[in-house]
Amino acid sequence: MAAVQSQPGLGHFSRLNPAVYIYQPKNDPPSKNPNLVLLAGWMDASIRNVAKYTAGYEKLYPSTTVIVIMTSSTDIVFRSNAANLNRVAPVLEILYTLPRDARFLVHSFSNGGALTLSLIAREFRAKSGRQLPVTALILDSSPGKVSYQGTIRAFGVGLPKIFVLRWLILSAISFSFWILKFLYWIRARADVLTKMREELNTSTLFRVEVPRLYVYSIKDYVVGWQEIEEHIDGAKRLGYKVDTEKFLDTGHAGHLIGHDERYWRCVKRLWDTTN
User: What is the protein's major site of localization (predicted)?
Assistant: First the structure.
């Protein structure tokens, strides 16, 4: 797999394709640390913001390989399943060759990251016949449900600031939302977020014994905390090992802001349960 020069913010990472970045330290990690951390970024996340999390992992586990996979609104709305599989192909290539005893931490952000994670898990299962070989899972600001306000706020993050252009794009998104909602209803099919929520609690994709941490906030106006707690309750009923970190004053996928020590403390708390 050929690597090209990375973008600023991940300058020491190699870029495996337009969406995937990897950092491979020279030394092997200690036996209790992860061998691999996969960060599945939120929709239209900037490299600069994602780099805050890679920096935290490099500080916490300096000898661990870190992979970042980016997800855009174009990936979610317009790209085919085949195109999205091509986007995640370098990640799957690495996971297929991962030793059975590898220590693998997945950190997913928002519905965009969770959708990408579910795609990876489905394809891994289809090709290998196995569940995703995760040792611990973090779900930050997800999984949510389809809602009009949440959709507009989520897609609004990456839009240009010019009022007219922004209004035109949001109008198109609004129109598309109601058309898609009608098509899902008339075909009696589950929407993509409902399907993703179900897959995250499907034992053939994600092992029940793998500890997972939900990080969320009551001030998240993109994904409601009630939606996340509903998923938490469902996971517990199915026997998943669940831990939670509930913030009172942070925005969507922004729990690190102003709570740096607390955020990384709960990440370490989750990982320590695997040792």
Answer: nucleus
Residue 186 confidence (pLDDT): 74
pTM of the model: 0.88
Q: What is the mean pLDDT of residues 11-32?
A: 96
What is the largest distance, in Å, between two alpha-carbon atoms of the chain?
A: 55
- Each as own residue / partner, the long-range contacts of residues 186-190 (CB below 8 Å, 24 or more positions apart, any chain) are none
* Nearest Cα residue to 18 out of 87, 75, 67, 78: 87
Q: Is the N-terminal amide bond of 99 cis, ω within 30° of 0?
A: no
Residue 127, domain CATH:
3.40.50.1820
Closest CA to 268 of 209, 205, 215: 215
Helix (H) / strand (E) element for 225: namely helix 225-237
Ranges assigned E (strand) in the chain = 4-5, 14-17, 20-23, 36-43, 65-71, 104-109, 136-140, 212-217, 242-247
Cα separation, 254 vs 217, in Å, equals 9
